[in-house]
Amino acid sequence: xxxxxxxxxxxxxxxxxxxxxxxxxxxxxxxxxxxxxxxxxxxxxxxxxxxxxxxxxxxxxxxxxxxxxxxxxxxxxxxxxxxxxxxxxxxxxxxxxxxxxxxxxxxxxxxxxxxxxxxxxxxxxxxxxxxxxxxxxxxxxxxxxxxxxxxxxxxxxxxxxxxxxxxxxxxxxxxxxxxxxxxxxxxxxxxxxxxxxxxxxxxxxxxxxxxxxxxxxxxxxxxxxxxxxxxxxxxxx
Length: 237
Fold this sequence. Notes:
- This is Probable transcriptional regulatory protein SAMN04488130_11051.
- Keywords: Cytoplasm, DNA-binding, Transcription, Transcription regulation.
- InterPro entries: Integrase-like_N, TACO1_YebC-like_2nd/3rd_dom, TACO1_YebC_N, Transcrip_reg_TACO1-like, Transcrip_reg_TACO1-like_dom3, YebC-like.
- Pfam families: TACO1_YebC_N, Transcrip_reg.
- It comes from Flavobacterium urumqiense.
- By secondary structure, the protein is of the alpha+beta class.
- The protein has three domains: 3-72, Orthogonal Bundle (Arc Repressor Mutant, subunit A); 80-121 and 202-232, 2-Layer Sandwich (Alpha-Beta Plaits); 130-199, YebC, transcriptional regulation domain (Alpha-Beta Plaits).
- Helices cover 42% and strands 23% of the residues.
- It is built from eight helices and eight strands.
- It has helices at 3-11, 19-37, 45-56, 61-71, 103-116, 146-153, 177-186, 208-223; strands at 80-88, 92-100, 120-121, 131-139, 160-164, 167-173, 193-200, 227-232.
- The strands form two sheets. It has a four-stranded antiparallel sheet. A four-stranded antiparallel sheet has the order 5-6-4-7, with helices on both faces.
- Helix 2 (19-37) packs antiparallel against helix 3 and helix 2 (19-37) packs across helix 4.
- 34% of the residues are buried.
């Protein structure tokens, strides 16, 4: 198994445990998708993917429709995605993905979390290069052979395909998202969920006490409503 498999195994059950928080994040994903490609999912592959994710999270249909409507309001004109970089204690690189309508507020909050937890905010590009930006898709297994599927999708950018208890996962570089989504749809394969992740190229092992220091910062960041995802180079226990 490759790095994507180990990354997924390490993160499983650790994040997105609160349904209300998950709905908030999916709602923001919908807003960003509509602003990027319009409110019609048939013509907007990113929106189509987020709607699939909303179903996987059992998000009510009216919540989805409300988020799509919100995305067309002028109040969301300044809504944008912002990436923050820095270091937690013990030399652990931290990458923070946010979606915000008030960048000054988000910058101030993220900086305060780093300061309070003995971390350091970095400049743009200071740690992003330590992570591979990937896309992923989950489809039902239905007796399918992951190795055969990988051979079929390798020309479309797939780098790692494996099965777990919830289906088959496909990982590829970030810019292969649209190509793989289109190919899966053309094959008539149901996409249960999809998304983007940043996989650390190298991880660092820490003691339990050191891990607790890093987890304190990660938890503070993840509690912020503007924060969508937090990635790090700490080796998962």
